[in-house]
Amino acid sequence: xxxxxxxxxxxxxxxxxxxxxxxxxxxxxxxxxxxxxxxxxxxxxxxxxxxxxxxxxxxxxxxxxxxxxxxxxxxxxxxxxxxxxxxxxxxxxxxxxxxxxxxxxxxxxxxxxxxxxxxxxxxxxxxxxxxxxxxxxxxxxxxxxxxxxxxxxxxxxxxxxxxxxxxxxxxxxxxxxxxxxxxxxxxxxxxxxxxxxxxxxxxxxxxxxxxxxxxxxxxxxxxxxxxxxxxxxxxxxxxxxxxxxxxxx
Length: 249
Ligand SMILES: [Zn+2]
Description:
By secondary structure, the chain is an alpha/beta fold.
Protein backbone atom coordinates (compact mmCIF):
# COMPACT_ATOMS: atom_id res chain seq x y z
CA UNK A 1 0.00 0.00 0.00
CA UNK A 2 2.94 2.33 0.74
CA UNK A 3 3.79 2.77 -2.96
CA UNK A 4 0.17 3.54 -3.81
CA UNK A 5 0.00 6.08 -0.98
CA UNK A 6 3.10 7.82 -2.32
CA UNK A 7 1.50 7.90 -5.74
CA UNK A 8 -1.65 9.43 -4.25
CA UNK A 9 0.38 12.17 -2.55
CA UNK A 10 2.13 12.99 -5.79
CA UNK A 11 -1.18 13.09 -7.69
CA UNK A 12 -2.60 15.51 -5.10
CA UNK A 13 0.49 17.72 -5.14
CA UNK A 14 0.65 17.96 -8.93
CA UNK A 15 -3.09 18.44 -9.45
CA UNK A 16 -4.31 21.83 -10.64
CA UNK A 17 -8.00 21.18 -10.25
CA UNK A 18 -8.98 18.55 -7.70
CA UNK A 19 -12.62 17.83 -6.85
CA UNK A 20 -13.78 15.51 -4.08
CA UNK A 21 -16.97 13.51 -3.65
CA UNK A 22 -17.85 12.17 -0.19
CA UNK A 23 -20.48 9.79 1.15
CA UNK A 24 -21.55 8.20 4.40
CA UNK A 25 -18.27 6.30 4.95
CA UNK A 26 -16.58 9.59 5.76
CA UNK A 27 -19.07 10.33 8.55
CA UNK A 28 -19.11 6.85 10.06
CA UNK A 29 -15.52 7.65 11.12
CA UNK A 30 -17.09 10.42 13.25
CA UNK A 31 -19.53 7.96 14.79
CA UNK A 32 -22.51 8.87 12.61
CA UNK A 33 -24.45 5.88 11.42
CA UNK A 34 -24.51 5.04 7.75
CA UNK A 35 -27.86 5.77 6.20
CA UNK A 36 -27.98 3.15 3.48
CA UNK A 37 -25.12 0.75 4.27
CA UNK A 38 -25.38 -2.82 5.52
CA UNK A 39 -26.52 -1.71 8.98
CA UNK A 40 -28.14 1.42 7.59
CA UNK A 41 -30.54 3.59 9.56
CA UNK A 42 -32.75 3.54 6.49
CA UNK A 43 -33.49 -0.17 6.90
CA UNK A 44 -34.76 0.12 10.47
CA UNK A 45 -38.41 0.99 10.90
CA UNK A 46 -39.04 3.79 13.39
CA UNK A 47 -42.16 3.33 15.57
CA UNK A 48 -43.43 0.87 13.00
CA UNK A 49 -43.00 3.22 10.01
CA UNK A 50 -40.34 2.81 7.39
CA UNK A 51 -37.85 5.62 7.05
CA UNK A 52 -38.45 6.10 3.35
CA UNK A 53 -42.07 6.86 4.22
CA UNK A 54 -41.13 9.21 7.10
CA UNK A 55 -38.83 11.07 4.69
CA UNK A 56 -41.37 11.43 1.90
CA UNK A 57 -43.00 14.77 1.20
CA UNK A 58 -46.66 13.65 1.40
CA UNK A 59 -46.10 12.03 4.82
CA UNK A 60 -44.20 15.11 5.98
CA UNK A 61 -47.09 17.40 5.04
CA UNK A 62 -49.69 15.19 6.74
CA UNK A 63 -47.77 13.95 9.77
CA UNK A 64 -44.78 16.26 10.31
CA UNK A 65 -44.48 15.04 13.92
CA UNK A 66 -43.24 11.72 12.52
CA UNK A 67 -40.26 13.26 10.74
CA UNK A 68 -39.43 15.64 13.61
CA UNK A 69 -39.67 12.78 16.12
CA UNK A 70 -37.39 10.54 14.08
CA UNK A 71 -35.03 13.44 13.38
CA UNK A 72 -34.34 14.11 17.08
CA UNK A 73 -32.17 10.98 16.94
CA UNK A 74 -30.73 11.36 13.44
CA UNK A 75 -30.60 15.05 12.47
CA UNK A 76 -30.96 17.42 15.44
CA UNK A 77 -28.06 16.01 17.43
CA UNK A 78 -25.14 17.08 15.26
CA UNK A 79 -23.38 18.88 18.12
CA UNK A 80 -22.39 15.44 19.42
CA UNK A 81 -20.12 14.70 16.48
CA UNK A 82 -16.67 15.98 15.61
CA UNK A 83 -14.92 15.99 12.23
CA UNK A 84 -12.86 12.86 11.51
CA UNK A 85 -9.36 12.68 10.08
CA UNK A 86 -10.90 12.72 6.58
CA UNK A 87 -12.81 15.96 7.26
CA UNK A 88 -9.69 17.53 8.78
CA UNK A 89 -7.41 16.64 5.87
CA UNK A 90 -9.94 17.89 3.30
CA UNK A 91 -10.17 21.21 5.14
CA UNK A 92 -6.37 21.43 5.14
CA UNK A 93 -6.26 20.70 1.39
CA UNK A 94 -8.71 23.51 0.69
CA UNK A 95 -6.72 25.87 2.88
CA UNK A 96 -3.60 24.98 0.85
CA UNK A 97 -5.60 25.63 -2.32
CA UNK A 98 -5.19 22.03 -3.43
CA UNK A 99 -8.93 21.34 -3.33
CA UNK A 100 -11.25 23.24 -5.68
CA UNK A 101 -14.65 21.88 -4.69
CA UNK A 102 -16.13 19.34 -2.32
CA UNK A 103 -19.42 17.61 -3.15
CA UNK A 104 -21.06 15.52 -0.45
CA UNK A 105 -24.06 13.27 -0.03
CA UNK A 106 -23.91 13.81 3.74
CA UNK A 107 -26.28 16.09 5.63
CA UNK A 108 -24.32 16.29 8.89
CA UNK A 109 -22.52 19.62 8.31
CA UNK A 110 -19.19 18.08 9.35
CA UNK A 111 -17.24 19.35 6.32
CA UNK A 112 -18.26 22.88 7.21
CA UNK A 113 -17.47 22.26 10.87
CA UNK A 114 -13.98 21.09 9.82
CA UNK A 115 -13.44 24.38 7.98
CA UNK A 116 -14.19 23.67 4.32
CA UNK A 117 -15.83 26.62 2.56
CA UNK A 118 -16.55 25.22 -0.90
CA UNK A 119 -18.92 22.49 0.25
CA UNK A 120 -21.79 21.52 -2.04
CA UNK A 121 -24.41 19.34 -0.36
CA UNK A 122 -26.22 17.44 -3.09
CA UNK A 123 -28.82 16.01 -0.69
CA UNK A 124 -29.34 19.38 0.98
CA UNK A 125 -28.59 20.26 4.58
CA UNK A 126 -30.37 21.07 7.84
CA UNK A 127 -28.30 24.26 8.24
CA UNK A 128 -31.31 26.14 6.91
CA UNK A 129 -35.05 25.54 6.99
CA UNK A 130 -37.87 27.14 5.02
CA UNK A 131 -41.49 27.86 5.73
CA UNK A 132 -43.36 25.82 3.12
CA UNK A 133 -45.88 28.66 2.64
CA UNK A 134 -44.09 32.03 2.77
CA UNK A 135 -40.51 30.70 2.32
CA UNK A 136 -39.22 32.42 5.45
CA UNK A 137 -35.77 31.08 6.34
CA UNK A 138 -34.78 29.72 9.78
CA UNK A 139 -31.48 28.27 10.93
CA UNK A 140 -30.64 24.92 12.51
CA UNK A 141 -29.87 26.77 15.76
CA UNK A 142 -33.36 28.30 15.84
CA UNK A 143 -35.22 25.11 15.00
CA UNK A 144 -33.21 22.50 16.85
CA UNK A 145 -34.28 23.39 20.45
CA UNK A 146 -37.94 23.37 19.40
CA UNK A 147 -37.66 19.96 17.80
CA UNK A 148 -35.70 18.52 20.72
CA UNK A 149 -38.46 19.88 23.01
CA UNK A 150 -40.96 17.71 21.14
CA UNK A 151 -42.55 20.48 19.05
CA UNK A 152 -43.18 20.65 15.32
CA UNK A 153 -41.89 24.05 14.09
CA UNK A 154 -44.40 26.39 12.42
CA UNK A 155 -43.75 29.78 10.86
CA UNK A 156 -44.02 32.86 13.14
CA UNK A 157 -45.35 34.94 10.25
CA UNK A 158 -47.89 32.78 8.46
CA UNK A 159 -48.30 29.61 10.51
CA UNK A 160 -46.95 27.43 7.65
CA UNK A 161 -45.09 24.22 8.31
CA UNK A 162 -41.31 24.56 8.45
CA UNK A 163 -39.17 22.05 6.57
CA UNK A 164 -35.41 21.53 6.70
CA UNK A 165 -33.56 22.04 3.40
CA UNK A 166 -32.84 18.31 3.20
CA UNK A 167 -33.83 16.58 -0.01
CA UNK A 168 -36.68 14.22 0.85
CA UNK A 169 -37.30 10.99 -1.04
CA UNK A 170 -39.95 12.31 -3.38
CA UNK A 171 -38.08 15.54 -4.10
CA UNK A 172 -35.76 16.34 -6.98
CA UNK A 173 -32.20 17.38 -6.35
CA UNK A 174 -31.26 21.01 -6.98
CA UNK A 175 -30.81 21.12 -10.74
CA UNK A 176 -28.56 24.18 -10.76
CA UNK A 177 -26.26 22.58 -8.22
CA UNK A 178 -26.15 19.33 -10.20
CA UNK A 179 -25.24 21.13 -13.41
CA UNK A 180 -22.50 23.02 -11.62
CA UNK A 181 -21.34 19.65 -10.23
CA UNK A 182 -21.19 17.98 -13.63
CA UNK A 183 -19.17 20.89 -14.93
CA UNK A 184 -16.77 20.89 -11.94
CA UNK A 185 -16.13 17.15 -12.19
CA UNK A 186 -15.68 17.25 -15.94
CA UNK A 187 -13.09 20.03 -15.65
CA UNK A 188 -11.14 18.30 -12.88
CA UNK A 189 -7.78 16.69 -13.42
CA UNK A 190 -8.03 14.67 -10.20
CA UNK A 191 -11.13 13.33 -8.45
CA UNK A 192 -11.23 11.59 -5.07
CA UNK A 193 -14.31 9.50 -4.31
CA UNK A 194 -14.43 8.88 -0.56
CA UNK A 195 -16.73 6.61 1.43
CA UNK A 196 -19.42 6.30 -1.19
CA UNK A 197 -20.47 3.19 -3.08
CA UNK A 198 -21.93 5.50 -5.75
CA UNK A 199 -25.26 3.73 -5.75
CA UNK A 200 -27.71 6.59 -5.16
CA UNK A 201 -28.68 8.44 -8.32
CA UNK A 202 -28.42 11.04 -9.66
CA UNK A 203 -25.80 12.34 -7.23
CA UNK A 204 -23.72 9.24 -7.72
CA UNK A 205 -23.32 9.95 -11.42
CA UNK A 206 -21.40 13.18 -10.71
CA UNK A 207 -18.00 11.45 -10.43
CA UNK A 208 -18.81 9.69 -13.71
CA UNK A 209 -18.47 13.09 -15.40
CA UNK A 210 -14.84 13.06 -14.27
CA UNK A 211 -14.29 9.90 -16.26
CA UNK A 212 -15.56 11.56 -19.43
CA UNK A 213 -13.47 14.62 -18.69
CA UNK A 214 -10.35 12.46 -18.46
CA UNK A 215 -9.51 13.04 -14.78
CA UNK A 216 -7.42 10.66 -12.70
CA UNK A 217 -9.91 8.99 -10.38
CA UNK A 218 -8.97 7.71 -6.93
CA UNK A 219 -11.49 5.69 -4.91
CA UNK A 220 -11.34 5.04 -1.19
CA UNK A 221 -14.24 2.86 -0.13
CA UNK A 222 -14.67 -0.46 1.65
CA UNK A 223 -17.19 -1.67 -0.94
CA UNK A 224 -16.84 -2.00 -4.72
CA UNK A 225 -18.11 0.90 -6.84
CA UNK A 226 -19.09 1.10 -10.48
CA UNK A 227 -16.08 3.36 -11.14
CA UNK A 228 -13.45 0.95 -9.77
CA UNK A 229 -12.35 -0.18 -13.22
CA UNK A 230 -11.75 3.46 -14.23
CA UNK A 231 -9.73 4.35 -11.13
CA UNK A 232 -5.96 4.84 -11.18
CA UNK A 233 -5.90 3.93 -7.48
CA UNK A 234 -8.35 2.11 -5.23
CA UNK A 235 -8.03 1.82 -1.45
CA UNK A 236 -10.34 0.15 1.09
CA UNK A 237 -9.40 1.83 4.33
CA UNK A 238 -10.35 5.52 4.55
CA UNK A 239 -8.91 5.97 8.02
CA UNK A 240 -5.50 4.52 7.12
CA UNK A 241 -5.23 6.54 3.91
CA UNK A 242 -6.16 9.83 5.57
CA UNK A 243 -3.98 9.27 8.63
CA UNK A 244 -1.12 8.87 6.17
CA UNK A 245 -2.12 12.04 4.28
CA UNK A 246 -2.43 13.98 7.55
CA UNK A 247 1.15 13.07 8.40
CA UNK A 248 2.62 13.72 4.97
CA UNK A 249 0.79 16.78 3.60
ZN1 LIG B 1 -44.42 31.36 6.68
